[in-house]
Design a protein that fits this description.
Blueprint (H helix, E strand, L loop, with lengths): L10 E4 L2 E4 L6 H15 L9 E6 L4 E6 L9 E6 L7 H6 L5 H12 L4 E5 L5 H9 L7 E6 L6 H6 L3 E6 L13 H9 L5 E4 L6 H11 L6 E6 L3 H11 L12 E9 L6 E11 L14 E8 L4 E4 L1 H4 L4 H10 L3 H24 L6 H22 L4 H19 L1
Parallel strand pairs: 6-10, 6-11, 7-8, 7-9, 9-10
Antiparallel strand pairs: 1-2, 3-4, 4-5, 11-12, 12-13, 13-14
Helix pairs in contact: 3-11, 6-7, 10-11, 11-13, 12-13
């Protein structure tokens, strides 16, 4: 809703396509909305603070408002409605955002307690992917989330059995003085014991605290956060050059996943795609290395095929991050590769079931399927003394066929 409202109709975006409506709001409508939003959020809004960012939890909608003097024509609004049901990796597979192999790789990296940054522009699907990745964290781990505007489906995941504690912080744009600053919330989270740490967005002074924690290992199991950046280079330059994190500290990042709105075949239509999964290299670094020298691409988007495909690093078992997790778990390179492939087959099986009956790709059904995978992993280790992943998949697949038949 652009200013001034009397000459600009409401614009609606559905599935990436923008529609021009015949709805015009009066000035009274515009003014009454900001009065209510200011009261609901408890955040200041006026000439001294002309930006308001808030969440309408009842409607699962994020609201952004700008006014004078930032918007000379008056008040302008943007409403972003969250998905009714949480995103899952199988749903993203069915949407074409990723392949089963990419889903299997991400599941492996998350289970391996990697520190991951999810990058992309506004509306590229960062938060949707982050929400889907939460389902890949084993339920035995505690999860702490830090957000300035709540977007992650915490209550739904809590009802499904995850141990999640949300922490709300001061908005990066505006916000009341009484609200907790992100870096304060982060320090508090680090004192709450070993937990998987989820940052809604990495963008301010808290990033230095974050990397200090990642370097000394006090962050717990892993750290996953989103950041604005169209490429791995953009992420590195923003964190090191703009936010002041030493280049050597950036090595605490294990992987960067890049999301983009892709124009398929050059058409005007845009689709959300994961276009890059890259690892941060080890070895010796210069004092300020070039961004092109510190990333290895594990998977890259192929525009001609409209999908992300594995590079030789993954195909040949040469990815440093995969090998690091394999070493930590006591696996060979071949066993780690098979682990990723089995996870990919599981995600593909769930996605195929979700095509026929959408409920099987929803969070509640995916949570049950993931829990059974971990159950069969533990059972195989206890019964045989080691894990035969083919046996694990066969048992899981047999169970899942029965599960689908009973829940159709």
């Amino acid at each position: 809703m652009n200013a001034p409202s009397d000459i600009n109709p409401v614009h609606i975006v559905v599935d990436g396509e923008e529609c021009l409506s015949n709805i015009f709001l009066s000035q009274d409508d515009i003014d009454s909305m900001i009065t209510r939003f200011r009261a609901i959020s408890g955040r200041p809004f006026g000439e001294a603070s002309p930006v308001l960012d808030m969440d309408l939890s009842e409607f699962r909608t994020r609201v952004s408002v700008i006014g004078n003097p930032l918007s000379a024509g008056g008040l302008a609004y943007a409403f972003r409605k969250h998905a009714k049901n949480p995103w899952t990796l199988p749903k993203l597979i069915n949407m074409g955002s990723m392949t089963p192999l990419a889903a299997g790789l991400l599941s492996f990296l998350i289970d391996g307690q990697s520190s991951i940054l999810v990058a992309g522009g506004v509306g590229s699907g960062k938060t949707s992917l982050l929400a889907a990745m939460l389902l890949e964290i084993p339920q035995k781990y505690r999860i702490l989330t830090i957000e300035d505007t709540p977007e992650l489906p915490l209550e739904i995941l809590q009802r499904l059995g995850w141990k999640i504690q949300g922490m709300n912080t001061k908005s990066a744009v505006g916000g009341a003085d009484a609200e907790i600053r992100p870096e304060t919330a982060l320090r508090a989270a680090l004192r709450m014991g070993n937990s998987t740490l989820i940052l809604g967005e990495v963008r301010g002074p808290e990033v230095k605290v974050l990397y200090e924690a990642m370097q000394v290992g006090t962050s717990g199991n892993s750290v996953i956060g989103t950041i604005h950046g169209a490429s791995t280079r953009a992420v590195y330059e923003r964190i090191v050059n703009s936010l002041g994190v030493p280049a050597a500290s950036f090595r605490a990042t294990d992987a960067v996943v890049v999301c983009q709105n892709v124009r398929i075949s050059g058409t005007m239509g845009k689709k959300k795609r994961i276009v890059q999964i890259a690892e941060v290299t080890g070895g010796d670094w210069d004092e300020r290395p070039d961004a092109d020298d510190i990333f290895n691409d594990i998977m890259l988007f192929d525009a001609a095929q409209d999908k992300i495909i594995a590079t030789d690093l993954l195909d040949k078992g040469q990815a440093e991050l995969v090998n690091k997790i394999a070493h930590k778990w006591g696996l060979s390179v071949d066993e780690a590769s098979l682990n990723i492939k089995v996870r990919a087959m599981i995600k593909e099986t769930i996605a195929e079931a979700g095509k026929e009956h959408h409920g099987f790709a929803e969070a509640d059904m995916v949570a049950v399927a993931n829990n059974m995978f971990w159950f069969y992993m533990e059972k195989e280790r206890n019964d045989a003394g080691k894990v035969d992943l083919q046996v694990v998949f066969d048992r899981w697949n047999g169970w899942y066929r029965d599960f689908v038949d009973k829940n159709k």
